Amino acid sequence: MHCPFCRHPDSRVVDSRTSEDGSAIRRRRQCPKCMKRFTTIETASLSVVKRSGVTEPFSREKVINGVRKACQGRPVSDDDLAVLAQKVEESIRSMGLAELDAYEVGLTILGPLRELDEVAYLRFASVYQAFESLEDFEAAIELLRKEREEQAEGEAAEAGSAEQ
Ligand SMILES: [Zn+2]
C-alpha cells in the first residue's frame, strides 16, 4: 500500500478494527518515511454472476440503475436510492458470500424497495419475477394489502393496550 501523501511504497499498520457487522476491517497505517497516518478499509470482494455467466464486481451504482426505471414518476429521490443501494449491499455482505447470482441481488432489492415505494416495488417485481398475468399482479397487491392490514391491526392493538 503506497503512502497517499508521499507515495512511499511501504506502510506500517498501527491499529486494526473489525466493523460491527464483521464485513470490513479498518486499518490505521503510518508511513515510515513522512510519518503521516492514513486509514484503509478492507472488504472481501463480492462478485455478481449475471445470467449470461459473466462475473462482475458488485456495484451500488448498478443496483440504483436497476431500480431507477421502476421509480420513474414516483416520489423517490436520489438520496432514497443511495440509501436503498446501501441497504442492499449491507444485507448481501451479511450473507458472507464471495459470489452470488444477479437474481439473488434482485431478490434482496425487493424488501427495501417495498418499504420505499409500493408502486415502484410492484413495477420492479413484475419485471423481476416475470409476472405473466393480471392474476400475478392481483396476488402481489393482495399480499401487500394483507400485510398492511396486519400492521395496522398490530398498531391498533398496541394503542389499545397502552390505553388500559
Ligand atoms: Zn509518506
Structural features, described:
With 164 residues, this protein is α+β, with helices and mostly antiparallel strands. The protein is built from 5 helices and 6 strands; from the N terminus they run βββββααβααα. The chain has helices at 60-68, 78-93, 102-116, 118-128, 134-163; strands at residues 12-18, 24-30, 37-43, 47-49, 55-57, 99-101. It has a 3-stranded antiparallel β-sheet, with no helix packed on it. α1 (60-68) packs across α2 and α3 (102-116) runs antiparallel to α4. The longest helix has 30 residues, at 134-163. The radius of gyration is 22 Å and the shape is elongated. The protein starts with 11 loop residues before the first strand and ends with a helix. Bound molecules: zinc ion. Zinc ion (ZN) is lined by residues 3, 5-6, 8, 31, 33-34, 36.
Euclidean distance between termini CA atoms: 63 Å
> DSSP helix count?
5
Low-confidence stretches: none
Percent helix, as a range, is 40-55%
Order of helices and strands: EEEEEHHEHHH
Computed over alpha carbons, the radius of gyration is 22 Å
Shape: elongated
Strand numbers in spatial order across the main sheet: 1-2-3
Which ligands occur here?
A: zinc ion
What portion of the residues fall into strands of 2 or more residues? 15-25%
Q: What structural class results from the helix and strand content?
A: alpha+beta
Q: How many E-type strands? A: 6
